[in-house]
Amino acid sequence: MIEVRKVYKRFETTESPVLQDIDATIQKGEFVALLGKSGSGKSTLMYIMSTLDTPTSGQVLFNKIPVQSMNLPSLHQFRNTHIGFVFQFHYLLPELSSLENVLMPTRKTKQERTRKELAINLLKEVGLGEKLHRLPRQLSGGEQQRVAIARALIMEPTYLFADEPTGNLDTANGDIVMNLLNRFNKENGTTIVMVTHDPDFARLAGRQIYLTDGKVSQST
Amino acid sequence: MLFLSLRHLIARKRQTLLTLLGIMLGTVAFVVISGMMLGFREYLITQLLDNDAHIHISAREDILETHSLDSAFYPKALYVHWIIPPSGNKNSPRIQNPTGWYKLLQHDPRVIAFSPQFTTQIIIAKGGSTVSSRLIGVDAISQSKVTRLAQYMTQGKFTDISGGGNRLLVGDELLKKLGARVGDTVMVSNGTQAPIPFKVSGSFSVGMKSIDEGSVYGDIHDAQTINNTPSQVNEIAVKVVDVYHAAEMATQWSKLSQELVQSWDQLNANFFSVFKIQDAIRYMMTGSILMVAGFSIYNILNMVISQKRREIAILRSMGYEQNDIVFLFLVQGIILGLLGGSLGLVIGLFACQGLSHLPFAAGPMGKGTGTMMVSFNPHIYITAGVLSLIASVIASWLPARYAGKMTPIDIIRAES
Ligand SMILES: Nc1ncnc2c1ncn2[C@@H]1O[C@H](COP(=O)(O)OP(=O)(O)O)[C@@H](O)[C@H]1O
Ligand SMILES: [Mg+2]
After folding, report:
1. Do A107 and B1 touch (CB under 8 A)?
2. Cβ(A16) to ligand 1 under 6 A?
3. Confidence band of B369 (pLDDT split at 50, 70, 90)
4. A34: Cβ–Cβ under 8 A, 6 or more apart, which residues?
5. Is residue B368 very low, low, confident or very high in pLDDT (cuts 50, 70, 90)?
6. Rounded to an integer, what distance in angstroms lies between the CA atom of residue B151 and that of residue A113?
7. Which residue of B has its CA nearest to A154?
8. Can you give the pTM of this predicted structure?
9. Residues with CB under 5 A from ligand 2 (ion)
10. Cβ(B312)–Cβ(B8) under 8 Å?
11. Which DSSP string do the residues of B286-306 spell out, in sequence order?
12. Which of A84, A167, B115, B261 lies deepest, with the highest CB count within 10 Å?
């Protein structure tokens, strides 16, 4: 469970806050879409929720534990084992094959051998069973994003955060990615928070939170 | 992370090879230049140590000053104006209290042996040819304990002169100039007395022109007789246990007496100042080569890091820490430094071995060994290795630290 309490965010360079007193609770196993116009603060909220960024004031709690109370090593450990990220850009490491890219998070805790089987299975599930040893530049944009999803899931995280994962893809590939996220949410119970500005994709999520000018304007 | 560092290096093969080459060249240059410089230096030092005593205690020349005779001639005058001021030596230089020295030297545990000498300028004549040279009067037994001259005898034995009897050992070159052979009789005079016949009973060649061409050894009593100064000693040659403490001992002793006490390295101070300049050049050259190599590491890493910002962000979001990122890039520099450095050491070693077999004609020091003198002192290799590693660590540390400081959120915000 993720609890967002009175989160307020203002950048030093701007006058008005980007986020104002956001309150939200995301239950275990939910698939939540963050919606809103460009510049409404979706990404900022997601990065604060996902521990990468810190709020100016307010709190984020994972299972009642405030993120601020974690020290750096345990925060890194938490990110490694409990959180997966998918970004608008795939951010694959160009020197590594699909399989090696997927296994990259496991190297942090030296699990690259024990999780190899899972990695191959994940790549099969995203339809890349035949392309395990391809380098990123030998894959299409949609395929690259699917490798990135497999990478986000390799540690079997409790939470998956995705910032416009379909933003750089055509509709066909966007659909594939959305179906994958849906499946992992249903089958593995992964809690997903996804930023999107596409209402069609947002409808696939179980719940939508709309942001307007840094405030929650509507929540289903 | 090491895995990823290696992948990065392999992915940019050309840059990696070029950087390796740079570090390698720097290391090779240091090894070869140092090998040659130090090789010659070591040879020079052994020559100096072999052929000469470690410490010379010699009489000071007592040169007359304008007013040094005032009181003797005009004891009551306040000021004497000389139309022609007195000049010259007061008397032939001599060690004031030789027995005092002998006692001191005998009881000093740092001293291996010492040999009193009486050295004087002589003129040697054979038939029509005359040559001036330096007659070093020694006690052959003591002298052979102090220097290795006995090993350089080409004819006769060094001890042939002991006990006096007007016998000489003459340097090969000098013998040639004189047109004499071992066994011949030559006439020796100090220039003021009537010439005395001496027999050439041996010859030597130490490989230093100044000695082979200008020196004659004889018994100390014979030398004193020629000069008409019986029992005078004007030099004591000393051999010590630790040659690198000779200077310290010499300085200590010179405070005890009015004699001039100089160690082998003090006497050859000009060589040592040349060595210092050589060292400076050596380090500067290598430093500049390594600096270029270091700059190339620095530039490449900086470039790579700015290209790989997104990858740094994703690694950080996976839970990799600041130190992991620093390690990722630092290790690349260290690998380049270690690999380039060790390749350089090996190639440098082979190059030095090749050079040491190169025929090398007699240099300013005379005969030499016939081949180039190259030092294989392990210090050279250690210094070269350490220098190349330091250069590459510094060059990669700076960009790596910068990469570590980037936070994932800043990178992601800048990218989107
Ligand atoms: N580092 C920053 N400094 C100043 N303003 C920022 C920074 N990052 C984002 N913003 C501003 O915050 C607002 C919300 O940004 P963002 O969360 O990226 O919106 P969204 O993802 O909904 O498009 C925008 O107006 C943006 O210009
Ligand atoms: Mg955004």
Report:
1. yes
2. no
3. low
4. A42, A45, A46, A193, A194, A195, A196, A209, A211
5. low
6. 72
7. B318
8. 0.75
9. A 43
10. no
11. HHHHHHHHHHHHHHHHHHHHH
12. A84
